[in-house]
Model the fold of this input.
Amino acid sequence: VYYTATDNAGNVTEQSIEVVVKEIDEKEIIVNDLADKLIAELVTEDMSKWDVCYNLWNWCRTNIKYTSTPGDMSSIYAGDYEGLNDKRGDCYAYYSTLTVLLEKCGIKTMAVHRVGGETDHVWNLVNLGDGWYHWSQRCR
Done:
């Protein structure tokens, strides 16, 4: 897009910007809506990052039925869709669901992938402000 602006003194400036239009992922829209509703139910402003993380993790642990069948790992929202909408999934669904929920609450996360195991496994590394913590669907 090219545009020109002229001020009262007759000074002219021109600028161009590039606009990229991307297709909206329907799962992303659904996931964001479900995540916002869940956060509104489980998180209050007076909670510490630790309490927020625990409440959201506990919801995932008690509401997502674990399945060893590999899920959709095409995007974070595909895995999150399985966790929030279908309430089932493998470790990727747990990881991606907790990631989207925590990041909406301003808590940074990273993925940890097991290397050299018999099967693939992924879980969250979560920054609670005083360091990074391993946080998995099987934490107790």
Notes: The chain has four helices and seven strands.
